[in-house]
């Protein structure tokens, strides 16, 4: 069975309050508009999640909810996973291996640098220097069980981000 994993870095966050904790930093205005934009792009590509998993930090929560709204996913069903907050790449494998096998397409919303490092481990033919804010990487693989994710051959079929095709930015 073909499985699809969509990795999403949170949208642009606000640094307006220098005393605010990193965990509680919200999206800025650009982030608030780019997250739904990427949700619309994913929906147009036919990438509709059976499950959305996200770090519970404020900016990832806001990103996940905005994307969920655009793809028609019930934002109350988003699974908040504490260990995704600024995690290392191996944590992504751990989270993925626990996805129920009835889930065909999953979105995971998380942070840099872990998400860039994890994306770069998905295929020998794909490499990026940095996952931009609200960047999306799509990975496909054939497996009956998500628990086999780390040992299966994977293909990166999508890499997009706000402004990628706008050469005026």
What would you note in describing this structure?
- This protein has 169 residues and is α/β, with parallel strands linked by helices.
- It has helices spanning 29-44, 58-71, 89-97, 114-119; strands at 2-9, 51-54, 79-80, 105-110, 136-142, 154-160.
- It has one domain: Rossmann fold (3-Layer(aba) Sandwich).
- It has 4 helices and 6 strands.
- The protein has a 6-stranded mixed sheet with strand order 3-2-4-1-5-6.
- The termini are far apart.
CATH class category label = Alpha Beta
User: What's the CATH H-level homologous superfamily?
Assistant: Phosphoglycerate mutase-like
Largest sheet: 6 strands, mixed
Helix content: 25-40%
Portion of residues in beta strands equals 15-25%
Poorly predicted tracts of residues: none
The gross shape turns out to be globular
Number of H/I helices: 4
- Average residue pLDDT: 96
- Count of separate structural domains: 1
Keywords:
169 residues, alpha/beta, Rossmann fold, six-stranded mixed sheet, 27% helix, globular
Q: How would you summarize this macromolecular structure in one to three sentences?
A:
This protein has 169 residues and is of the alpha/beta class. 27% of the residues lie in helices and 20% in strands.
């Amino acid at each position: 069975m073909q499985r699809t994993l969509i990795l999403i870095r949170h949208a642009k966050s606000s640094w307006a309050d220098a005393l605010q904790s990193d965990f509680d930093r919200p999206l800025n205005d650009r982030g608030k508009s780019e997250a739904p934009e990427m949700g619309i792009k994913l929906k147009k590509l036919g990438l509709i999640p059976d499950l959305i998993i996200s770090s519970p930090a404020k900016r990832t929560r806001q990103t996940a909810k905005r994307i969920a709204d655009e793809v028609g996913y019930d934002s109350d069903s988003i699974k908040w996973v504490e260990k995704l907050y600024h995690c290392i790449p191996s944590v992504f494998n751990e989270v993925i291996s626990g996805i129920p096998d009835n889930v065909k397409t999953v979105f995971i919303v998380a942070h840099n640098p872990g998400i860039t490092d994890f994306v770069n481990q998905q295929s020998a033919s794909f490499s990026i220097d940095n996952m931009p804010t609200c960047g999306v990487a799509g990975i496909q693989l054939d497996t009956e069980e998500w628990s086999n994710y780390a040992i299966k051959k994977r293909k990166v079929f999508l890499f997009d981000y706000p402004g990628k095709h706008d050469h005026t930015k």
